[in-house]
Amino acid sequence: MSRSAHPAGPRHGDVLPEGHYTAPAADLNALDAKVWSRTVARDDDGVATVGGIQVTRLAEEFGTPAYFLDEADFRARCRAWADAFGADADVYYAGKAFLSRAVVRWLHEEGLNLDVCSGGELATALAAGMPAERIAFHGNNKSDEEIERAVSTGVGRIVLDSFQEIVRVAHTARRLGRRQRVQIRVTVGVEAHTHEFIATAHEDQKFGIALAGGRAAEAVRRTLALEDLELTGIHSHIGSQIFDMAGFEVSARRVVQLLAEVRDEHGVELPEIDLGGGLGIAYTSEDDPREPYDIAKALSDIVTRECESAGLATPRISVEPGRAIVGPTAFTLYEVGTIKPLEGLRTYVSVDGGMSDNIRTALYDAEYSVALVSRRSDAEPMLARVVGKHCESGDIVVRDAFLPADLAPGDLVAVPATGAYCRSMASNYNHALRPPVVAVKDGGARVIVRRETEEDLLRLDVGE
Question: What is the pLDDT confidence band of residue 8, given thresholds at 50, 70 and 90?
């Protein structure tokens, strides 16, 4: 593999430009277990491995860019969440993070439920054999066709997101001769400490029915009056990539206050409360996510305390981790192409993917880690920006990170924690072909979502 010399960007110790980077690790060959899946390591030659397989072998067999999903890690995280919450609570995997038929089968086998938010996600869940009663259906603008399929197949709950939807779901249930279990999604006015686009519980946004002004109470009133709907509880989701539990405490308190109002007005104690998901993961070494057991205990303590104060029986708790399960289980593998040093600034490292396989940096200003994984390097660190090959200056994968100064075209780099919202938000921008998802476990690897081909692109283009 070529190691042609080139002028490097700033080194550790230089006066560096402002940016999102942190100080370089003492050893750039180290792979922080906090941000990589649990079977990732380096072998004696310095090549990274996952599930016991070298990434160089994976690149030869499956090409780059590609997402490699650590199946053992995924299953272990499913079990950790299920064990943390126990038999008296429900864990719904948020399918929007990443969904495929293989993932649905793993969830089913590990005892988790599934949360979907579109007809396509519901179709995938049903096609892979997830029992309908273990599916929850979200969405702020469900179509009539989606509602009919959800009701007719017997999904366990539909989360009502508006007054109009209350009527539409009830009408469909009556026409089909069903009584549909539902929850009402409320916005509790909590400001989650996250990006504006992924904070979902403040009032000025599209999701849910506000507690303010008695609107959520009115939604409960209307739902209870409809015989075709069985109102089982209240749903709240305050945002994504959250580390601070304070927002959940305020949210739970306000939801329990609503439950008490429902009891006082209607003589009914709703048996369920769904606190949503949004728990953060480590994208960089500076992130410090909580373990599932700590999250479960904190949420259970909050709800129990608030219910005791209100004189209510403690309802059954549901949570919806998506990113917290699948996010850390996968990394994206790229091949390095063009390298451009900018004297006094940084070195631009172009890879063979980009914003078509990871839009989060451009969309949310997300931060990621990156490592040279095809070999060991003892070179000094250089400040690098990993960018894609698309015709956009905002096509950035990792805004600022330190990589070895001897990085060269043909090297393989990997970006960890890309299991969530990367393949599921991937696009064909510039007619790029979406990468495959490859599951790796115990020395074996198999494609669970194949790479797109030019034939796939042209098949949808019907011509004149």
Answer: low
Alpha carbon distance 137, 390 (integer Å): 35
SS3 content of the chain, % helix, strand, coil (to 5): 30, 25, 45
Let me know how many helices (H) and strands (E) the chain has, helices first: 12, 21
**Global pTM value:** 0.92
- Read off the tokens for 194: 């996250």
Rounded to whole angstroms, the Cα distance separating 300 from 246 reads 14
Tokens of 394: 């905002």
Residue 24: band (very low, low, confident or very high) from pLDDT cuts 50, 70, 90: confident
Instruction: Give the residue numbers annotated as catalytic, written as ranges.
Output: 391
**For 235-259, what is each residue's pLDDT tens digit?**
998 877 888 778 888 888 999 999 9
Rounded Cα gap, residues 163 and 183, in angstroms: 12
Residues with Cβ within 8 Å of 433's Cβ and at least 6 positions away in sequence, in order, are 451, 452, 453, 454, 456, 457
Integer CA distances (angstroms), 131 to 108, 136, 148, 204, 326, in order: 8, 11, 17, 35, 21
Residues pairing with 69 in the sheet: 330, 439
Whether the CB-CB separation of 275 and 296 falls below 8 Å is answered with no
Res. 222: pLDDT tops 70? yes
Q: How far is CA 15 from CA 9, 256, 279, in A?
A: 11, 52, 35
The confidence score (pLDDT) of residue 260 equals 97
Name residue 62's amino acid.
F
Beta strands 330-342 and 66-70, pairing class: antiparallel
Per-residue pLDDT at 5: 42
Residue type, 384: A
Q: Quick one: 264 exposed, middle or buried, by C-beta within 10 A (0-12, 13-18, 19+)?
A: exposed
Separation CA 169–CA 71 (nearest Å): 37
Selection from 254, 234, 250 nearest residue 242 by Cα: 250
Q: Using CA atoms, how far apart are residues 264 and 194, in angstroms rounded to an integer?
A: 35
